[in-house]
Amino acid sequence: MMFRECGGSPVPSEGRQRLLGARGFTLLEVLVSLALVSLLAAVLLQVMTLGLRAQRASQLRTQALEVAGNLLQDFTREEGMRLAAGRRTGTQGPFRYEVVVEPQYALPLEGRPEIRVACYLVRITVAWEEQGRPRSLALTTLRTAAQRG
Length: 149
What we know:
- By secondary structure, the chain is an alpha+beta fold.
- The chain has two helices and six strands; from the N terminus they run E-E-H-H-E-E-E-E.
- Strand 5 (112-130) and strand 6 form a beta hairpin.
- The longest helix is centred in the middle third of the chain and has 53 residues, at 27-79.
């Protein structure tokens, strides 16, 4: 037996029975799957956010190390043989730095008593803000200089 739907195309009664017997998803199944997808999306978003924060922290630390290394090179090049105890501060971009030079000891140069070899501790501290918290790192090295007198 055949009959016409509103659209006018004939649908055999066996086909109509098959369509009526087809089973879809229940509202409960759709809601549960939606909740699971939402939960997974929230977890994924948290993981991505943590990854971005870690990347930014690593980037800032790398930049701070670069600033400290450049300061150490500049300080060594500028001061050279004129090392003297003291403290110098400044800023470079988002970073604040402090260079501290402390004398450690001085020894006479063998065979040349008018010249002394002095050893200085040079400490460079770089500080910055990261997510509202203060961060810092320090590089420390020993430098020697020959001095008359």
